[in-house]
Design goal:
Elements: H1 2-23, E1 43-54, E2 59-69, E3 73-77, H2 84-92, E4 98-106, E5 112-115, H3 126-132, H4 137-146, H5 163-176, E6 181-185, H6 193-206, E7 210-213, H7 217-223, E8 226-229
Parallel strand pairs: 3-7, 3-8, 5-6, 6-7
Antiparallel strand pairs: 1-2, 1-4
Length: 232
């Protein structure tokens, strides 16, 4: 408990120091855009006593019950290996070798924007990227510019970009594509404090419907309407 408290305080001190340094060079935080489209249903997702277990292995978590409503952000918390990422993949139907108990109800025909924790290797030009994922090229570039991309970076092939830049491309993709529901797994990875604050400002303004996994307590308390911890 003491070690956890010290680590959290150190992260907060680092965040404050980084932010103070950046603010010396930045006068105004540019506002990004988010293509959130609220569904007409009030309740978007319902989990009823859901438990997930790896086949031939241990139980990840048990008896998870939650209700996610429109314009609500729920943060899923838990230690490493507790099944946070697996839960999102299960809801998307892309997780295999699982034994599930309980049930869930998700509104059909939802447009879901998924931002995975894993590093996704994209390639090609930004223009080809926008075309492949049916994105507005102008909106994609606008969000990237507001994240700190220089115009010269727009002509760089994605696979030649730094990991931080590639993470911003994935982030901009999620912001630009139309969505009724966002499933974000550690969106703050590889983003500096300035970009994280941009994201916090945007989420507080738009109030999208979202299931969020994030380890940064400051980020969670800034945007989440509920915090639910996985237990086993």
């Amino acid at each position: 408990m003491m070690k956890k408290s010290i680590n959290a305080r150190n992260r907060m001190d680092k965040r404050i120091a980084e932010k103070e340094g950046m603010l010396k060079n930045i006068e105004k935080v540019p506002t990004m855009t988010m293509n959130f489209q609220a569904d007409y249903h009030r309740e978007i997702l319902q989990l009823n006593d859901l438990s997930l277990q790896l086949k031939n292995s241990r139980e990840l978590f048990k008896s998870l019950t939650l209700s996610l409503n429109n314009h609500e952000i729920i943060a899923i918390e838990g230690k490493n290996g507790s099944g946070k990422s697996t839960l999102i993949k299960y809801l998307l139907g892309i997780s295999q070798n699982l034994i599930a108990k309980g049930n869930y109800e998700l509104i059909e025909s939802l447009k879901i924007s998924y931002l995975p924790q894993e590093f996704v290797m994209y390639s090609g030009s930004l223009k080809d990227f926008a075309k492949k994922y049916h994105l507005s090229y102008e909106a994609l570039l606008s969000n990237l510019k507001k994240m700190g991309f220089a115009r010269a970076d727009f002509t760089t092939r994605i696979e030649k970009m730094s990991m931080g830049q590639q993470k911003r491309v994935a982030w901009a993709k999620s912001l630009t594509e139309p969505a009724n529901l966002y499933l974000w797994d550690e969106p703050a990875n590889y983003l500096d404090v300035f970009n994280q604050d941009q994201l916090i400002k945007l989420l507080k303004s738009v109030k999208p419907t979202m299931l969020l996994i994030e380890h940064d307590p400051y980020f969670i308390t800034s945007v989440a309407d509920q915090q639910i911890k996985l237990t086993n």
